[in-house]
Amino acid sequence: MGFRTAARQGGVNAIAGGDGGAGGDPFLRLYRETVEPLYRSVARRARSRDLAEDVVQETFLRAVTHFARAGVPREPLAWLRAVARNLLRSHFRRSTPVATAAGVDLDRLLAPEDRRDDSAAALLECGLARLKDGEARLLEEFHVEGRTMKEIAADRRWSERAVEGRLARARAALARVLAHQKGV
């Protein structure tokens, strides 16, 4: 039985249930295949284990509804990561940064995670949440996920020079957003 059929016949219980074996429920198999990489991806950006777990849980709740209605996307993990990323952005958009943007060194803020303190990480997430999706995603890929310009260029079918220029514009946009937050 396929995912959409299971959803129509038994609702959420049919989707979430199943024996988990080779012939088991398709959503349960999908969950087992994707929950770990999704959690790792979310945990890199979330500042707490509780937040990461909440975001992953909400992502799968949304997946149940969406997949039952529209079917499973061709790349389910990519879809799940996009939903989780949007949920994190919404969370950080609503939150107040623990530090203000006054005198923030953008290079320190965009440094690799192991060299970024909690207040800088909170400020970065709040700033990214206020950028346009394309700008935020580009900065996240390069600075948070550690992808190279060459990798980003290949995925987006851009030249490395185009990635470099767009990164510079995205950094400038982030600096403007952070400067605007000075009074927060």
What can you see in these coordinates?
- It is a single chain.
- 72% of the residues lie in helices and 0% in strands.
- The chain has 184 residues and is mainly alpha-helical.
- The chain folds into 2 domains: 3-94, Rna Polymerase Sigma Factor, Chain: A (Orthogonal Bundle), CATH 1.10.1740; 106-183, Arc Repressor Mutant, subunit A (Orthogonal Bundle).
- Helix 2 runs antiparallel to helix 3 (49-70) and helix 2 packs across helix 4 (76-94).
- Mean pLDDT is 79; it is low at 1-21 and 97-101.
Summarize the structure.
It is built from nine helices and no strands.
* Number of beta-strand segments: 0
How much of the polypeptide forms β-strand, as a percent range? under 5%
Rg: 19 Å
List unreliable stretches of 5+ residues. Answer: 1-21, 97-101
The domain tally reads 2
CATH class of the largest domain: Mainly Alpha
SS summary, helix count: 9
> Could you say which overall geometry the principal axes of the C-alpha atoms support?
globular
Secondary-structure content class: mainly alpha
> What CATH architecture of the largest domain do you see?
Orthogonal Bundle
